[in-house]
Amino acid sequence: MIxxxxxxERLWTYLDGDLEEADRLAIEEHLRLCVRCCxxxxxxxxxxxxxxxRSRPKMPDDVQRLLEQFIEGxxxxxxxx
Length: 81
Description:
The radius of gyration is 14 Å and the shape is globular. By secondary structure, the protein is mostly helical. The protein has helices at residues 4-16, 21-33, 35-52, 61-74.
């Protein structure tokens, strides 16, 4: 199964419908099992809809930084509980 980082890295391509079938199926399998990535997908869809309805062509730098930090944090070790 693919990891969260791979899902997030391919998320926009997935939402655009531009993935090979095997990759699309792998992401969909991951989304069925991962609440975190499922939430990120919903968030990305909302961002996409918002951006599509506005004339602003570029994502704000602070939002871009937050997304990059999130992606970097996906592979960070999780604390023991």
